Amino acid sequence: MNRRVVPIIDQRLPPGPGDELLRAASGELFDTRGRVLRDLRISVTDRCNFRCQYCMPRAVFDSNYKFLPHAELLNFDEITRLARLFVEHGTEKIRLTGGEPLLRKNIEVLVGDLAALKTTAGRNLPVTLTTNGSLLKKKAAALKAAGLARITVSLDALDEAIFKRMNDADYSVADVLAGLKAATEAGFSPIKVNMVVQRGVNDSQIEPMARFFRGTPHVLRFIEYMDVGESNHWQLGQVVPTREVISRIQAIAQIAPCHANYSGEVAKRWRYLDSKGEIGFITSVTQPFCGDCTRARLSTDGKLYTCLFASQGRDLRAQLRSGASDLALSSAIRGVWEARTDRYSEARSDARPSPQKVEMSYIGG
Ligand code: SAM
Ligand code: SF4
Ligand code: SF4
What we know:
The structure is a single chain. The protein is of the alpha/beta class. It has one domain (27-363): Alpha-Beta Barrel (TIM Barrel), CATH 3.20.20.70. 30% of the residues lie in helices and 15% in strands. It has helices spanning 19-25, 76-88, 107-115, 117-121, 136-146, 160-167, 173-186, 206-213, 242-250, 316-321, 326-338, 344-347, 360-363, and strands at 39-43, 93-97, 127-131, 150-154, 192-197, 219-224, 255-257, 268-272, 278-282, 295-298, 303-305, 314-315. It has a 12-stranded mixed beta sheet. Helix 2 runs parallel beside helix 3 (107-115) and helix 3 (107-115) runs parallel beside helix 5. It starts with 18 loop residues before the first helix and ends with a helix. The structure holds S-adenosylmethionine and iron/sulfur cluster (2 copies). The site of one iron/sulfur cluster (SF4) has 12 residues, from loops.
């Protein structure tokens, strides 16, 4: 349900000279296609302890790879300040991601700072996080105590050999399941479980994963493999279309679509007809959803991107560190969103060469 953010300008007064300034500082933002800004994804680190072949293949992200030095990362105060400005522009949800967000030292402190923005916003403001789950056993209770609202855990296979081949860093399925268990015990429920499906790599795991999570409170989501970044050498033939995944699941259980929880929800929701829970499908390749895309992304070093497949972002960190006022930063956010034209996934089949895309670990998945 769309909710209007009331601008801080008093509409009963005649327009005055300060109105433009105030408008820059607050109020909902719409892009050139009428899409409102609703979600902010923040990449808190470009590093990861996994080397998933579809995201950070070891051949590229090896010991010579230049990750961002610590001084280039936005610090927690900078992140929180920018997040507050996004909230004043109508952002309703914040997701922490990366790279692996649990590698960022004291991440729970940032969660607490962002969760406290709820008070400034005067409304519910869920702070959520996506993780590979490997460090969740250690961190789940602290994240919950800090005010994290929801958690998404990625898991691409239950088969140990397949999972290890995919993460390419010797992590076991058991490590992730232990994280899921700890998160459940800490009070996160339901938990969304992300599985990227790649033909010939882990598509054999579709049915085992569906069986494993059926009847649990967790919601398994099958994600079509995407051509994010430049490192994974994506090919269309590696994508398993959602309609194929659905028909394979229908062969083992009765499922039916259900309504979206809210407008702009990324996953298409389906439920088991025997009340054994829900599953989801993220159809970014075969049924793009750019028309409903309400997400802005803040990279690890403070650049604002308006599409996962972008090649350039607006450098908010430079502004922050040169002493820009809230008003100036707020105007910059407004300017970027109002100029937004992105529809990469809808235009993918145009097969026009696109400029070098940024990596997902840097921009945030
Ligand atoms: N490291 C964390 C994790 O894996 O959950 C958070 C960052 S990761 C980039 C966020 C999500 O993006 C994960 O669920 C991951 O599987 C997904 N992802 C990464 N590369 C992808 C790709 N090429 N296509 C589709 N999903 C991808
Ligand atoms: Fe790391 Fe997540 Fe990318 Fe895998 S998908 S390499 S866990 S950032
Ligand atoms: Fe949004 Fe870009 Fe993905 Fe389209 S391709 S849904 S605009 S992030």
